[in-house]
Amino acid sequence: MYDVAVVGGGSTGLGIALDAAMRGLKVVLIESHDFAKGTSSRSTKLVHGGVRYLGQGNVSLVREALHERRTLLQSAPHIAQPLDFVVPVYRWWEKPFYGMGLKLYDQLAGDAGLGKTELLGNAATLALIPGARTQGLRGAVRYWDGQFNDARLAIAIARTAAQHGALLVNYCRADALLYESGRIAGLECTDTRSGTAYRIRSKCVVNATGVWVDALREKDAEQESAAPFKPLVAPSQGVHLVVDRSFLQGDTALMVPKTSDGRVLFAVPWLGKVILGTTDTPRQDLPREPQAFQQEVDFILGEAANYLRRAPSRSDVRSVWVGLRPLVKHQDEQDTKTLSREHTVAVSRSGLVTVTGGKWTTYRVMAEDVLSACEQANLLKKLPACTTTQVRMVGAAQARDPAASLCLPPGLHSYGAEQALVQALPGADRWISPGLSEAMVRFAVRYEYALTVEDVLARRSRLLFLDAQEAARVAEPVAALIEQELGQDGGQADFLEVCAHFSHVP
């Protein structure tokens, strides 16, 4: 019998597992695919308070996120770090306007701030962003936020939760909810690789499946025979394009606070490349491998051309990925740009606890709120205080290494305090691709829950997100190493199909 059974291995579910385990609870987490396979590996890679939400007047959300930003950066300095951003201005009023807004951003952060907002002239702007468009430039505003390696942080959270006694299982699908006297008493699930079925008995079941929470909620509603089912989530997709570092140059991100349709656009240096994004397009369906729409790619490339000296084209895109966001639906709102990124925790009459919404930066406080809801609903006895504000993730070094910047191409430095452990494995001096050795593949399989080629190349090394064609090229040697380690097929054929999606620029 478990105290808490979590369904969903994204940032929220993993955060719940870690928090619960650190409070001494018996915890199991199941994920139908790989950890962070969905939204949690497809973010804009920013640890931020949300400048966009400040513009919407959501001060409480921004203040909370800014303080959580500091906690997250401190927990894993090898994969989460401060980053400066430049807002280039081309009209006379923009510098004082954005300057005031971003100074308010600093004030909301208080002692959790990462650096002071500055007003820059043209020379200082181009020194930080050499790739910025010079025609009509009137300087810039510089401010600070953070960036991270989202999927690798998710794996670090999973491993840290396991160190505290949690059981985490990927490729295990939740099929049904178990009930006793009308109350949820556990789960029926299936190991999707072996086909073996299991029953998990638990005092509390948490539905943390992100954009897919309504599927489990609907099953629970059928059991309750309650009023007509109302979905909680309005899905929205965000598209990101990856281009070479030469388009931006430097180690500073570029932020456009208001594009032609009112959205924010980023150009972020990340692992030796530049991420351009993101969009915010409503979707009615929930595909596991969502595709970018042509108009979204047109939008990103068109806006980038307004701010970069050299405009990227479709042929310059190395990889394109799409993340589905779980935006919380209120009343009859349809425009996902106006829906809340604040999270929602709901407990059904039968005791199913559902959490959705929010964003990566606030994953820790979301977990804390879920366990508080479990306690208030008498699903768990009085709990010890939350201690995750002080947690150090597996692999975290004592201090951030300036030579391990997330702007640099991936390499051994990405492993923080575990570099020696990686180097001790066979193949440490044999490179499959720049920044990916045979030893790193073995490490992913032995220590980081990787079971397939996609697990390794998408969410442990991130090569798929950086260069889809290169990821396809090295799939075969990675599959061979997985077979050596596990004695089973690593899903190379399936991975090549995923590579085709990431390579396709509509």
What would you say about this model in short?
With 506 residues, the chain is α+β, with helices and mostly antiparallel strands. It contains 16 helices and 20 strands. Among the domains are: 2-39 and 151-232 and 338-390, 3-Layer(bba) Sandwich (FAD/NAD(P)-binding domain), CATH 3.50.50.60; 409-503, Helicase, Ruva Protein, domain 3 (Orthogonal Bundle), CATH 1.10.8.
Distance between termini?
A: 49 Å
The stretches of 5 or more residues where confidence is low (pLDDT under 50) are 331-340
Overall 3D shape: globular
What's the β-strand tally? 20
Largest sheet: 10 strands, mixed
Helix and strand topology:
Layout lengths: L1 E6 L3 H12 L4 E5 L14 E2 L3 H5 L3 H17 L4 E9 L5 H16 L8 E3 L1 H7 L11 E9 L1 H14 L3 E4 L1 E9 L2 E9 L5 E11 L5 H12 L8 E12 L8 E4 L8 E6 L2 E5 L3 E2 L11 H14 L11 E10 L15 E4 L5 E4 L6 H14 L42 H5 L7 E3 L2 E2 H10 L5 H8 L2 H4 L1 H6 L1 H12 L5 H12 L3
Parallel strand pairs: 1-2, 1-10, 2-7, 4-12, 10-18
Antiparallel strand pairs: 3-6, 4-6, 5-6, 8-9, 9-10, 11-14, 11-15, 11-16, 12-13, 13-14, 17-18, 19-20
